[in-house]
Amino acid sequence: MASAMNGNGGGGGGGALKRMGVLRVQYYCVMGAVAAAVVLATLRYMPGPAAAAVTGSVARATPAAAAPAGGEGGAVAATKKKKKVEDKVVLFNFGDSNSDTGGVAAVMGIRIAPPEGRAYFHHPTGRLSDGRVILDFICESLGTHHLSPFMRPLGSDYSNGVNFAIAGSTATPGATTFSLDVQLDQFLFFKERCLESIERGESAPVDERGFQTALYTMDIGHNDINGILHLPYDEMLEKLPPIITEIRKAIETLHKNGARKFWIHGTGALGCMPQKLAMPRDDDSGLDEHGCVATINNICKKFNTLLSEACDDLRLQLKKSTIIFVDMFAIKYDLVANHTKYGIKKPLMTCCGHGGPPYNYDPKKSCMTSDKDLCKLGEKFISWDGVHFTDAANGIVASKVLSGEYSIPRVKLASLVIPPKSDD
Predict the structure, then answer these.
(1) Phi, psi values for residue 177, rounded to 5°
(2) N or C: which end of the chain has fewer CB within 10 A?
(3) By C-alpha distance, which of 215, 202, 203 is closest to 87?
(4) What residues are labeled active site?
(5) What are the pLDDT digits (tens) for 300-353?
(6) What is the DSSP letter of 352?
(7) Which of 260, 149, 252 has its CA nearest to residue 211?
């Protein structure tokens, strides 16, 4: 029987089996050729993204088929390896009204009316200013468009990142609707949706590489400080560490999710704001040599010291990360202390407010009312509405932020985002 099965016997059974084997081989060859032709035709005529998805599935199903060199696929792969992919500018911002580019207006349905936006956009944009916020100037310096608010349903372009900042937000959870922890959840949701879309072969505004190389900026904590200013000085100091802890936790959470470059702003000189100066007081003994509330500014400086120390600790803890702290107090206080150098005549007075000198601020009235006292267009003021900066002031502050002179360690923001040009 063994000889017959091997085709060495003289019976007819061995010859039949041999002919059947040849036919089976021919059958498989023909079917294989047909299958290959179908796959090639499909890849040739389907749209790009779909073709890429099919190519990936074929490669996973038949890894041996992707191995041969010298074919068209090998040449394309070699070309892709030679071509250097340049990273685009991507930023993700977390904060409050200092960097809100229209989020609060969109999510709360607030109609922000003229004269908001008059100095630059020439119409209201949802920013609480007559023009741009510091984040806008940062984007312009990097050659990218202004960041779109996460909550704005119309006209948003997230190809260069997202702005999660909402006016009134705090670092402390639960103190406000869109506190820092909520903004982080929104970021994680956005990232997950982007990566899921790409996995399905669909387009997404930011890819995995974009999330990895992005700059993560924070400008928050001012509203937390405002919320404790009614307390005795010692109690205010005790309230600061928990605020810093929340910012620290946010940085750690972002790091766990792939973030590696952080740009953290401290708080400004809140004691120089017309809003604070217009509050009733017995006398001027609590004012410093430039007319600012000393106690409030001391709290701000202590906040910045603690935040800078937290960044120092995180720099040691989070390896292969860049964490920059920016001393916003020094920058903004300099605007008041050396206002004449910047062409500012009334550093403590509101541009758009009520009541006239010395502060032109009334907490009961808005800048958007018809009976407002409005400065002339082109006049240089620091404060727009008693709380937020003018376009002109934000421009000066942004130039100092970008310079790296107020950064710890001393690093220019552009060096974190735009890679140095090579000779290749």
Answers:
(1) -65, -45
(2) C
(3) 215
(4) 97, 385, 388
(5) 999 999 999 999 999 999 989 999 999 999 999 999 999 999 999 999 999 999
(6) E
(7) 260
